[in-house]
From TrEMBL:
This is Bifunctional enzyme IspD/IspF. Its cofactor is a divalent metal cation. Pathway: Isoprenoid biosynthesis; isopentenyl diphosphate biosynthesis via DXP pathway; isopentenyl diphosphate from 1-deoxy-D-xylulose 5-phosphate: step 4/6; Isoprenoid biosynthesis; isopentenyl diphosphate biosynthesis via DXP pathway; isopentenyl diphosphate from 1-deoxy-D-xylulose 5-phosphate: step 2/6. Gene3D superfamilies: 2-C-methyl-D-erythritol 2,4-cyclodiphosphate synthase (3.30.1330.50), Spore Coat Polysaccharide Biosynthesis Protein SpsA, Chain A (3.90.550.10). It comes from Devosia salina. CDD domains: CDP-ME_synthetase, MECDP_synthase. The keyword Glycoprotein does not apply.
Amino acid sequence: MRSKSIAVIIVAAGKGERAGSGDSAVPKQYRPVAGKPVLSRTVDACLAHEAVSHVLPVIHPDHAELYASLGLADPRLLPAVPGGASRQASVLEGLKALAPLRPDRVLIHDAARPFASPDLFGRVITALDQHDGALPTLPVTDTIKRSLDGQLVATTEDRRQLFAAQTPQGFRFGQIFSAHMRTGTVRREFTDDAEIAEWAGLRVAMVEGERNNIKITHPEDFTRAERIAMADLGTETRIGTGYDVHPFAPGDAVWLCGVKIPHTAKLQGHSDADVALHALTDAILGAIGEGDIGVHFPPSDMRWKGAASTVFLRHAGDLVARLGGRIVNLDVTIAAEAPRIASHAPAMCAVIAETLGISAGRVAVKATTNEKLGFIGREEGIVAMASASVEVPRVD
């Protein structure tokens, strides 16, 4: 007897608006978690079970370039197909695309659930031997109240009978395809594929879900996703420090943390002489053992003559991402008698956060004087010191 073929549809056609955009307008399924895009993680999770024959992403029609930029490649990964105006319509498009392959079983999984384990896929697949459909669930632990008007409690539900549904949800292909096709005869939007199966009279079993199988929906979910990803990798926290000094030269403005501040002089240097970003770049490079800024951008190289120091900072952030790490927090201290810096600190934090793709809450910029002492006190130059805390996969 031949083994049953199993296909997985990844529903990735949404715009991810509830998750917010954070540092960019990139939809949530293409945003990185611990240096790897959410959708890349989800595809890997679907391919991790050896019984899976095909994986088919269903993407938004406007996201073809974003999807291509992921560079995904696997013999079992089918070309992505465009989805519809709703989740339900997108799943139907995926089922239509799979129909020529005639899989025995199909699992339908949310792109925003990147941490489903092979064991979870296995439990759903095994349940399909005895049932028309199967989905992972978790018992509801909160007390659930029902309200008719959203203001007053009408009743308290028996939570012993309530379960939170997850994906992947599995079905026998012909049955769920037929059920989806029949939904066109009713004016109703179903919340998930198990509800469609229930409506069609199919028997749907529950299997044990996973707490880490979270659905990334809101901005704060990315923080939890980062923790899950880093815990899976096994991480360690590293600290780096940076120090830089630049003298003044004739000019009318200084660049500090990517912000141009009018002044009676400029800072002298090969690039834009942003002493603060140089110190911060060194701190990040130091945390991951990648030398200093001069190793990556030697002052003898004329390509960097007058360059914006955000280029250097972004490079350091990219190196962290390539390691599968993340920046936890950054702290910059600028020592100068003039210009006055404190009022520019929020803008500086914003530039650093945008350059590195992190939240501004992870960045601190402080200013101090040298109480008229030394070369800083004589207004001959500016000193910057920085520290960086970075989480990276543990290397034994």
